[in-house]
Amino acid sequence: MDYTPREIIAAFRAGMLDKVLKSNTIWLCSSCYSCTVRCPSGIKLTDIMYELKRLAIEFGLTPKGAKAPVVAKLFVDIVNEKGRVAEVPLVSRFMLKTNPLGAFKMIPRAAKMYKRGRMPMTSHKIKGIAELEKCTGAMTEPMISGLHSGSAKERS
Amino acid sequence: MNKAYDKSTQVVCKALDIDLAELNDWNCCGASAYMSIHEMKAHLLSARNLVLAEKEKKDLVVVCPACLTTLTKTNHYLAEESRFKRTIDAALKAADLQYRGSVKVRHLLEVIVNEVGEQEVKARIKRKLAGLKVAPYYGCQLTRPFGEIDDKEFPVILDKLLTWIGAEPVDFPLKTKCCGGLLMMTNEDVALGLNRNILDCAKQNGAECIITICPLCHMNIETYQGDVNKMFGTDFKIPTLYFTQLMGLAFGFSRKELGIDEEMISSRPLLEKHLEVIG
Q1: Which end of chain B is flanked by fewer CB atoms within 10 Å, N or C?
Q2: What CATH number does the domain located at B124-277 have?
């Protein structure tokens, strides 16, 4: 973790957002919300982390080799395609993109899981996928103008 | 990858007369991954599920805390007039959908403890879990960020349920520490470290088994336990079960019906030691 949460807020206030957007810190955030519930200033840091992730992608500043943005984008692609996540396509596409040789290391575990009936071999496409597309098509994501923190809820 | 959770949930709900019906054509809630890429579209995923649940006129019950958090967040945001609400409402309208805000989003654990209650749970016990020491592992998103179900860092709701079914929950200070979630895929070393701490805490407090309420926690704690050992030279071998599996065992159901034996670390020796049939 290159910047601590406090350093991230300090960077905001110092106008050094670009440093933060290039950091590994934001991609190490697992959204456990510990920071959010403990912050004495009531800062919803987890939601800020989500926003920083989105900004980092929007401005193309994600660190080279960072895997978390890759899995997030694949997740989005699969959900957009089927309406639900299919673990096998997610993991296999992810491994091919980030660490094809590492995929071999996963084989023993995958085989064990398959033997125990824990490897989903088919994936489901929801009936409402067109409905979902209609809704998302009718919506634009808030475009970023200037620096601000917080979620869309706070901006409205 | 979690048929066991599904199987045991259905079995337990039937035994407790909880009318559980799968939400028709539900879509993914997006969890933390979707929100990392698109904000409003992520909320829309939740909104569609809320619309579907509202049509059924039932509470929306989930067994995954990530689903709980994302659905609850969207539900809360839609409760007030705001630009956020107008945006989501307009998007739903494009497909002739409307959400009136009447759905309650709940985790099954809370439904069982608060609504079904102690008497009903105890009345169905057919097996004693004689002295089985368990670590109640809540994970991070059951009680955070909203804290509506219980205390945000030191909840006791699962501990309570476990005592009702005859297990002995141990002291477990890391009960809501994150297992790393998707980090196990993207930053494995970091996630293994987090799980090592959790396993260590459970072991040090005398737990023979870890009980979880989240499919991703289960995956990380259980399926990757061997990897934790490899990385840190530890020798953890702590079986990990879903709370519904342990409930099902106490209610007298078979291992097969509850998806036990699908896990990587066998719970067989442990359960053989502790399960006693009553009467």
Answers
A1: C
A2: 3.40.50.11810
